Amino acid sequence: MGTGYMERQILMQNQMRERQMAMQIAWSREFLKYFGTFFSVATVGLTVGAVKRKKPVLLAPIVPLGFIFAYQMDSAYGTLIYRMRGKLHS
């Protein structure tokens, strides 16, 4: 096993890692479509319900759902994957 073999192994491992990251980003973007639609409908429905019934407590679920939405946005279109990769290599 020479250095050429080791270089090819490292190159193949890097390519596999890049493919896995690309699949993770693609999955996040697909999930974001569905969760974004749910989040929008839920936000509108909860807001309308809170205004009609004069119960501001109905707006409470929007906060945790907003955090989940922000996380998914970061995962799909932000730098979350690259920040995580940076933490693994440091």
What descriptive keywords fit this protein?
3 helices, 90 residues
Give a written overview of the molecule.
The protein is an all-alpha fold and 90 residues long. It has one domain. The protein contains 3 helices and no strands. The protein has helices at residues 3-53, 62-77, 80-89. Helix 1 (3-53) runs antiparallel to helix 2 (62-77). The protein is rod-shaped and about 75 Å long. The chain starts with a helix and ends with a helix. This is Plasminogen receptor with a C-terminal lysine. Keywords: Membrane, Transmembrane, Transmembrane helix. The chain crosses the membrane at residues 31-51, 57-82. It holds the Pfam family DUF2368.
Task: Give the gist of this structure.
The protein has three helices and no strands. The chain is mostly helical. The protein has one domain.
Write the layout of secondary structure elements.
Layout: H1 3-53, H2 62-77, H3 80-89
GO cellular component, one term: plasma membrane
Organism: Seriola lalandi dorsalis
InterPro entries: Plg-R(KT) (IPR019319)
- Total number of strands: 0
- SS-based structural class? mainly alpha
Mean pLDDT rating: 91
H-E string: HHH
Report the principal-axis shape.
Answer: rod-shaped
